[in-house]
Input
Amino acid sequence: MINTDLRKEIKFIAVNAVILDVVLIISALAFIPFINILTGVFFGTLLLILDMFFLSLSIQSIIADAKNGNNGNKGSAKMTFLYILRLIFIASGLFLALKLPFMSVICTAIPLFYPKLIYFIKAIFCKKEG
Output
């Protein structure tokens, strides 16, 4: 269903997200009740992983269309439409976190920024050969 490279990338993000979740939980203990932190962090990480999954499906769909000769503005329009759907998915998840009394919306939103941090750290520590 999903390309092997994309599956590896999602797994890489998920493993590093769990590590960053532990850091977030420890650092938020001074400000937010523990159960709100836990539910927020794990719900935010779930949103992140599902968003990455939907992104990989979008990429595969656009590539498959391009290979079949359906390129041009149709691919761009489809990618834009799928991007908007992903944004609606994330916004509804954040809205749900805002409405639930046992979930911290801040701790739900922070994991959505993990990929930027993960790729930044990866760029610093992992040098490409060649």
User: Anything to note?
Assistant: The radius of gyration is 17 Å. The chain has a mean pLDDT of 89. Helices lie at 4-28, 34-67, 73-99, 105-109, 114-125.
